């Protein structure tokens, strides 16, 4: 059941998780002071950021080139300019799945399309669920953190019920809990199978502090 008021959710924050037009410009133009601080060792990021987009097409022949749709619905290109031209990533590419790119910048490609040029292989990863599912998982994690009593993810019975309901966590996502095996099996076929992958995918993000920069994150 969705509450009318949306919980504050990490991946919906457009500062650490901007759409393409919110990304900094490439530094050869001008340093974007929303993202960088001028420190004793030169410019350093002032916080972390990650672009998220859903794969709508894959167009590369010589190297991996993806067309992805960002949070605002804009379709841009992600080009793999890594040593292996994206070959390690290739088996994970699937239309409808989500691409995450750390520290991406707005780039104009030679063919006049715009997008992100990825040069560090550990800055990109594919998460096996849609962008919408990933954002929903982020909401789910945020609402659990508010300390509401846990409920069975299928029948809704809560852990404080008078019959001493004992809820146990899904062993994969360790997020959703169930009052028993029947409820767990029912929920799995009715949709947790998909939600579970999104919840596992989102945990890498929700376990980190995106507000302060100490060292670069990598996937
Ligand atoms: Zn139940
Ligand atoms: Zn699960």
Automatic annotation (TrEMBL):
Pfam families: zf-MYND
InterPro entries, per database record: Znf_MYND (IPR002893)
Keywords: Metal-binding, Zinc, Zinc-finger
Stretches assigned to the MYND-type domain: 152-196
Signal peptide extent: none
UniProt GO MF annotations: zinc ion binding
Protein name per UniProt: MYND-type domain-containing protein
């Amino acid at each position: 059941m969705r509450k009318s008021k949306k919980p504050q959710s990490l991946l919906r924050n457009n500062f650490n998780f901007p759409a393409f037009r919110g990304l900094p410009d490439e530094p050869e133009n001008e340093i974007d002071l929303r993202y960088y601080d001028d420190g004793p060792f030169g410019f350093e990021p002032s916080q972390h950021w990650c672009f998220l987009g859903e794969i709508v097409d894959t167009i590369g022949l010589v190297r991996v080139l993806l067309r992805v749709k960002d949070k605002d619905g804009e379709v841009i290109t992600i080009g793999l300019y890594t040593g292996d031209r994206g070959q390690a990533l290739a088996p994970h590419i699937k239309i409808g799945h989500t691409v995450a790119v750390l520290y991406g910048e707005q780039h104009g490609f030679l063919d006049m399309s715009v997008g992100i040029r990825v040069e560090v292989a550990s800055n990109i990863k594919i998460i096996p669920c849609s962008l919408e599912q990933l954002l929903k998982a982020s909401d789910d994690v945020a609402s659990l953190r508010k300390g509401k009593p846990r409920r069975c993810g299928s029948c809704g019975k809560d852990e404080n019920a008078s019959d001493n309901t004992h809820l146990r966590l899904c062993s994969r996502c360790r997020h959703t809990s169930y009052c028993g095996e029947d409820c767990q099996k029912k929920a799995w076929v009715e949709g947790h199978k998909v939600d579970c992958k999104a919840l596992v995918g989102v945990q890498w993000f929700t376990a980190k502090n995106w507000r302060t920069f100490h060292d670069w994150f990598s996937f």
